[in-house]
Amino acid sequence: MTLLTQDEQQQVAAAIDRIEQHTDAEVVTVLAAQADDYHYIPLLWAGLAALLLPGIVVVLTGWLSSGWLLLAQWLTFIVLALVFRSPGVTTRLIPRAVRHWRASNLAHRQFIQLGLHHTSDATGMLIFVSEAERYVEIMVDRGISGRIDDGVWESIITDFTGQVRQGKTLEGFLACIEACGAELRQAVPSTHERNELPNRLVILS
């Protein structure tokens, strides 16, 4: 799945390049289709429904014998497992806290895997988005967190998340990068020319 076209990805890279000309921060952006496949979620809900629904029918009506009860449970499980595998249905079955927890875990892994904790002045910044979870996170290393309060990023994240919900992922990225750049120019201004990490948008599909 192509989350952004090549031209849109280049726009993101160009936006990063513009702000990095005025700051010592190393900014990397990551866009994930989803943080987890959640294969276990449809099975979990289908299993619970298969255990409860036929049993409730038996208790209330007495219509099913033990043999028919077992068959009804199997049929309920199979049908619901297939229905619940639909992406739109699966998303609604996952508690928001679980979705955001999985997305946050992926963001933290990307911060490490992309080497943002190894920049020379500890000025790495990750702008992470997971579209399925509608989740946005900004992570910074100690060279930035020591100069900019974490609360500054919250309003930027709120605006970006709103645009992701509306399907405006590109516009959200560009606005977020510019907003982050304005903060970085003030707190972590450029002192020398460098580019330790690539400016491209990392796509996780």
Explain what you see.
By secondary structure, the chain is of the alpha/beta class. Helices cover 58% and strands 12% of the residues. It has helices at residues 6-20, 40-61, 66-84, 87-93, 96-113, 142-145, 151-165, 169-187, and strands at residues 26-32, 124-130, 135-140, 201-204. Strands 3-2-1-4 form a 4-stranded mixed beta sheet, with helices on both faces. A hairpin with a 4-residue loop joins strand 2 and strand 3. The N and C termini lie close together (6 Å).
What key attributes describe this structure?
8 helices, four-stranded mixed sheet, alpha/beta, 58% helix, 205 residues, elongated
Strand order of the largest sheet: 3-2-1-4
Give the strand tally: 4
Main β-sheet: number of strands, strand sense, barrel status? 4 strands, mixed
Uncertain stretches of 5 or more adjacent residues: none
Outline: elongated
The CA-CA distance between the termini, in Å, is 6 Å
Helices and strands: which structural class?
A: alpha/beta
Average of the residue pLDDT scores:
87
Q: What value does the Rg take, in angstroms?
A: 23 Å
Estimate the strand proportion.
5-15%
